[in-house]
Amino acid sequence: MIITCVPFALVGGMITAPLLSLFIIPAAYKLMWLRRHRRLAA
Fold first, then answer.
1. pTM above 0.85, yes or no
2. Residues 16-29 as b or e (16 or more Cβ within 10 Å = b)
């Protein structure tokens, strides 16, 4: 049972890791940057 679930976890990790590093992390960084600079400008 466990051996059959391992490939699904590996494939899921291989799909989500590039998505996180290419899209979600830079978008979150930009949102934090914009909030910080809006507070300083106001």
1. no
2. eeeeeeeeeeeeee
